[in-house]
């Protein structure tokens, strides 16, 4: 039997409140509920995560991706959100 990392009820509450207060709808993206999916305009992502998302171009292929070199997680969510993806990868 597979074991999943399920977030605590405190984490779920804080994360849901954050997204709700910012008018963001999320979808659960994993069986344990430890990954959420959401879509926001770049300007809103920049504001929420203290980031500067821009278009990066892979020079050999010409593939363009929106990424940032850094971001931060709001202080009240630190310890509840481990990462935001895609961001720096």
Overall structural class, as computed from helix and strand content, comes to alpha+beta
Give the CA-CA distance, first to last residue: 31 Å
Largest sheet: 2 strands, antiparallel
| Range of helix content | 10-25%
Q: Tell me, what's the shape? A: globular
Count the E strands. 4
Low-confidence spans: pLDDT under 50, at least 5 residues? none
In round numbers, the mean pLDDT is: 93
Share of β-strand residues: 5-15%
Total helices: the number is 2
- Order of helical and strand elements: HEEHEE
Rg result: 15 Å
The neighbouring-strand order within the major sheet is 1-2
Features:
alpha+beta, 2 helices, 89 residues, single chain, two-stranded antiparallel ribbon, 13% strand
């Amino acid at each position: 039997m597979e074991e999943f990392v399920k977030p605590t009820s405190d984490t779920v509450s804080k994360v849901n409140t954050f997204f709700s207060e910012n008018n963001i709808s999320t979808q659960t993206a994993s069986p344990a509920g430890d990954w959420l999916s959401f879509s926001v305009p770049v300007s809103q992502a920049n504001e929420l995560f203290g980031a500067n998302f821009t278009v990066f171009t892979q020079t050999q292929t010409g593939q363009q991706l929106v990424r940032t070199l850094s971001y931060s997680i709001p202080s009240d969510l630190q310890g509840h959100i481990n990462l935001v993806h895609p961001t720096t990868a």
